[in-house]
Structures are given as C-alpha cells and as structure tokens.
Amino acid sequence: MLDFFTIFSKGGLVLWCFQGVRGPAATAPVNALIRSVLLQERGGNNSFTHEALTLKYKLDNQFELVFVVGFQKILTLTYVDKLIDDVHKEFRDKYRNEFQQKGALGLLNGTFDFKDDFMRLLRDAEESSKVRAPTVMKTFEQSLKSQKTVKCMIETRGEKPKEKVKNKKNKGSKKDGTEAVAAPSKASAGDKQLSAAGDKEELTKDEILQKNREEFFRRHMKAGEKSRSPKPDAQKEKGKKPRVWDLGNSNAKVLDYSNSATNGSAEACPVEEFDSNMALGDKNREPGRLYDLEYESDDEAEEEKVVQNPSKPSVKKGGLGGMFGMLKGLVGSKSLTRGDMDPVLEKMKDHLIAKNVAAEIAVQLCESVAKKLEGKVMGTFTTVTSTVKQALQEALVQILQPQRRVDVLRDVMDAQRHRRPYVITFCGVNGVGKSTNLAKISFWLIENGFSVLIAACDTFRAGAVEQLRTHTRRLNALHPPESHGGRTMVQLYEKGYGKDAAGIAMEAISYARNQGFDVVLVDTAGRMQDNAPLMTALAKLIAVNAPDLVLFVGEALVGNEAVDQLVKFNKALADHSMAQTPRLIDGIVLTKFDTIDDKVGAAISMTYITSKPIVFVGTGQTYCDLRSLNAKAVVAALMKA
Ligand code: GDP
Fold this sequence. Notes:
- By secondary structure, the protein is α/β, with parallel strands linked by helices.
- Among the domains are: 2-131, Beta-Lactamase, CATH 3.30.450.60; 336-400; 408-636, Rossmann fold.
- It has helices at residues 27-38, 80-109, 115-131, 150-158, 161-172, 178-188, 197-228, 230-238, 252-255, 276-280, 299-308, 320-325, 338-354, 359-373, 384-400, 408-417, 434-447, 464-478, 501-515, 532-545, 560-576, 601-610, 631-639; strands at residues 2-9, 14-19, 47-50, 53-60, 65-72, 422-427, 452-457, 490-493, 519-524, 549-555, 587-591, 614-618, 626-627.
- The strands form two sheets. It has an eight-stranded mixed β-sheet with strand order 8-7-9-6-10-11-12-13, with helices on both faces. It has a five-stranded antiparallel β-sheet with strand order 2-1-5-4-3.
- The chain is globular and about 80 Å long.
- Guanosine-5'-diphosphate binds at residues 428, 430-437, 526, 591-592, 594-595, 618-621, 625.
- Residues 613-626 form the SRP54-type proteins GTP-binding domain.
C-alpha cells in the first residue's frame, strides 16, 4: 500500500529507502517536500501533498535525520503515523552508536541493513490497524431515544414556545448521557415536588443556563436590530462628502467635476499649483534608487537585558525578553524537548499575534520552529534562548524571501529590447492606495529613464480619473519633457467613466506600443474580494490583456483582512478566469507601512499564505515613499519586544 519510505540525513544523504511495488520513484516528491516545506519553514503540519501522493514526514533533530513516507492520497492509511514513529525509534536505536561515534563519516560509510526490521514494523502497523474491531451499531434499547417516555414527548409538543426553548436546550445536552435525558422529563412533567437536594441543584443549574441563553438571545437580537436598522438611514443622510485638505487647494471649483468632460481631453482638469517639495518628500535621496526599508534593530539591547537579569522574567507584556528568559537555565549538553519549549512557544505565538500575524499562521510557525528544534542538542556555549530566537528569526526571514524574485527594471529593459511596452496591472479593494502607489511607481520608473503610460481603467469611482490626471500633471511638472530630450515621460490614457475597463486597457497598450512608451501601468477599480461580477470583470481584464505583472495592492494597516483579500483575489482570479491556466497575482504592493509602527505581521501572513513576493512597500504619501522589502527590517520589527 505504501509507495515508498525513505530515511535521509538533513545533509542530503539517503541512508535507506523502501520502494513499493508499483509506486513512483521517491525522488521527485521528496525533492518537492524539501523545496516547498522543509526549506520554506512551512513544517508546522507533518503532511504534504504532491500530485497524487500524500507525504508524511518526521524530523529527528538530534541526529539530523528525516523520515518520509509516501502513499496515494486517495488512501486513508490510519497506521502511517504509528509506522513512522516506530521506524524512527527502531532506526535511531539500532544505529545510535554509529551516529554518535562516527558522525557524518558514519553516515557516509555506514551500511544500513534495515529491510527486515522495516517489513516487520510495517506488518505490525498494518495488523494493528486491522485488529481494531469495527463499531457495532447500537440496539434500540441501548439508544437514548428508548429511554424517553411517551409522556415526555407528548408534553414537549403541547408546551408554550418559551418552554420549548427549554426543551430544545435539554435536547442539545443529550450527549451527556442518561442524566441529561432524565432532566427534560423531570422538568417538562412539571413535577414541582422535587425533594432531593441533588435534583434541586440540577434544576437550578438548568434555570441558570436557561437564563443565560435567553439573555444571550435578547442581546443578540438587540445587537442585530441595532446594526441593521439605523444603517440605511445613516447612509442616506451621510451621502458622499468631499474631502477638504488642510494643506491642499480648498477651492470648491477645483473639486467640482460635474462639468468636466472626461473624454480623454488633457485640458479637462483645471491647472492647480502644488508644492513640489511636499510631493517629492526626501530630497536627499539618490534619484531612481529604490531604497530598502530602514530598520533599527534592538536585538543587542534585548540580548543584554536577558543576560544581565537572568532571574527576572521581563515585565513587559508579551515581550520576547520574558519569553526567552524562561529558557535561560537550559545551557549546553541537554537536548531540547517539547516540554521545554511549549511555554516559550506559547508566548512566542502570542507575541506574533500581537504583532498582527494571523493566529493560524503564528501557530503553524511555532509548530515549525518546534519541529526543527525538538531533540536538538545545544552547543556548550549556546543558550536555548539564542537557539530558539535564531530559529524563529531564520524561519521568518525565509518566509519573506521570495521564491520568485521580481526585478521590474530588468524586465522592463527586456520588454524594451522586444519593442513592446511592459504592462503592470494593479488590483485591490477600495482605498488601499492603488492610484497613489501607481503614481509612486511611475515616478520611480521615470527617474530610471522609462516613459510611462497610465491607463485609467477605474471607470467606476468618481474622481478616479481626475486623481490620476493630477498625478500625471505633477509627475510631468517634476520631470518635464525639456529635461528628457523633449520626450513626454508620463501620459494618461483615459476614456472617462462607465466604459469597459478591459477594452480601455487594451487600447492603452496598443497606444503605448505605437507611441513607444516603455511601461503601461493599469489602474483598476477597487472591488471587494467577495463581489463575483466585479472579480469576473477583473479576471477578464487580466486574461484579455495578459499583463507582465499583476500586483495586488494591500494595506498593512488592516492586518489579517489584507490576507483574506489577497487569498480571495487570487482564488477569484482562478475561479472566474475562462482560461485553462488562469493568470494569478504575481506580487504584492504593501501600502501604508508607515502607519503600523512595529505591527508588521501582515507582511508575514501575506507571504506565508500565498508565497507571493512583496515587490514594493508604500511608506507614505509622497512620490519618494516607495521602498523594497527588507526581510531583516520586518523581522527586526516583529521580534521587537
Ligand atoms: P485607491 O482607492 O486604492 O486608489 O487608493 P488611493 O490611492 O486613493 O489612496 C487612498 C488613501 O491612502 C489616500 O489618502 C492616499 O494618500 C493614502 N495612501 C496611499 N498609500 C499610502 C501609504 O503608503 N502611506 C500612507 N500613510 N498613506 C497612503
């Protein structure tokens, strides 16, 4: 039934392998497991699916071994976990001396004659799973239903609605056994002469439960009414109010778009003055350079705190100082057990959640770190504190390192060589910063000498086209044709509102090709991830225009919500695409990073869930507030107590 069982060292040496009769070779699936799970810090779950196979694995951190079993995923093999445990124990015990005495050489030269032992263990495991007797159906007499009295049933039906609720509740507690079944009959029979103290107590408990339940329903109903009723009125009253900027142009005429002809005319928007210094931001930067996210590491300070004051756990709530302080005593020679690590991992998990990492991912991460460290023998001068911390840091950096690197400038140059524009599509929900960051990316591209055509494909949100037009004007003012040999570096392609976005994008791309633009940036309308018609429209836009890069724009501010959006956008693109191999999201623009202080968990959650690289990070509202992701910066912020 098993396709294969293989034992190899973490260094990559296959020590022993069992190959099933008709199973596929273990190489490809095991390589996939190593690439996608073991090297990617996704080891929280000890199971992995590769094509038609399920792989289960176990790590031995003491001897640096990996045990992997593979079987067809349609099979439900209940004995696999036991088998892998048994084989692990037996193999380790049998060759313990070789591992301990000869080390790596032992592995290289060792002959591991394990076939007979393995076949015995496999037989035992298979037998033990068969031995388990099938569950026999209960007879009617044994069932709880048989213990119900006819009287009880009749009275249940005849009761008033309020009492019915009581009965329903008792029904719910049926699982508790006969006592629970007896309770409704007592209560519903209306037998008020309950004399035994125990019975009285039970009735009181019931009543308390009943009261709580009623209270819960009452509150729930109230909350429901509250949240439902005032909303439509409030919305009606509120309407859409224009935003008045403190520092911007407060002239109402500027914001009045009612008469502006949005038919592609460049002169439709009134000219406005703007403070170029304010729009630019940092003036001392090197033009065209995409800086890494800056960070200030307080690792050393924290380390010192732990060393100097080992007996007192840090008082900071949720701080890593306290967490790592707990393992201070375990130094050298002891191999780490799950028991040693559990309290630390618990704190570690809470710390990550407090930093906005999705709870589920925090659990998986800690699980992965635990699996990596369990059984590991500490070096003489290594504290458990530093080992655990390092393992977590390594895991986090690993997650943030993209599996596929996106180098936009190189790809644009490549497209240039092929005499075609490089197309980037931006998508995301409303207000996350699509247009703003599109403008920042335009600015960065222009500074690198590339001309940009902005396609205004948000044909839905009022003001979206004007917003891009303003950006275009400003970018042109900052980079006038005079300083680029008479070449217009940025232009807007727009067709007003209410038109088909996919069509406009297509026209813009062919316009860019004819006019020799290097890059086309396609702005799309914001849409909720659950809105099927709008997601279909986006999938169509992407399928029809086949952009080189599809960027999902998500704000770091909303944390886990951004993860949900990203996952659902990706899924929706797959579901609503007509193509056989649907085009999915290629990368992430993480915006509003300047607003989250050190709660940087969204970056981890987003990359962990989708394995998509964070290509750009938005760090403010000026054109220079664009950065590339620096994994170390994010991890440092995440580890900060
Ligand atoms: P869109 O609806 O997705 O196109 O969002 P907008 O581009 O209109 O941006 C919405 C708001 O977010 C605007 O007020 C932007 O100035 C602001 N914004 C965008 N990116 C950032 C950022 O990186 N940091 C900060 N602090 N604000 C941003």
